């Protein structure tokens, strides 16, 4: 007996992506920011090399931070993360916080430097 494969009966395959795939509001600023990060990942990232000392990498962190918190907040978080990744900087696990506290106001962008300590 031969059994035929029915594609309609197969469960949908989960698409693998190294970037954040959770739910996020797709506003124009977030789409623009994540598109810039993705453009970097597809073009320049291969020339820079695999030298990020954090997990997730700096570009994955930037993508998720912008997707979760918007271009302004996520962009500042990503900039400070890249600065922490430099020589003499930090290393190890550094996930994007799910929610930002009230001390991280949009008009106080320098406070995002401490965002690596504000996990959950």
From TrEMBL:
Would the keyword Membrane be found if you checked this record's keyword annotation? Answer: yes
InterPro entries linked: Membr_insert_effic_factor_YidD (IPR002696)
Q: Which domain of life is it from?
A: Bacteria
Region annotated Disordered sits at 1-21
What's the protein's topology in the membrane?
Peripheral membrane protein
Leader sequence segment: none
> What are the protein's UniProt keywords?
Cell membrane, Membrane
Principal subcellular localisation of the protein: membrane
Any idea where this protein resides? Cell membrane
Q: Which PANTHER family does this UniProt record tie to the protein? A: MEMBRANE PROTEIN INSERTION EFFICIENCY FACTOR-RELATED (PTHR33383)
What function is annotated for this protein?
Answer: Could be involved in insertion of integral membrane proteins into the membrane.
As for family, the record states: Belongs to the UPF0161 family.
Descriptive protein name:
Putative membrane protein insertion efficiency factor
Q: What is the lineage of its organism?
A: Bacteria, Pseudomonadati, Pseudomonadota, Alphaproteobacteria, Hyphomicrobiales
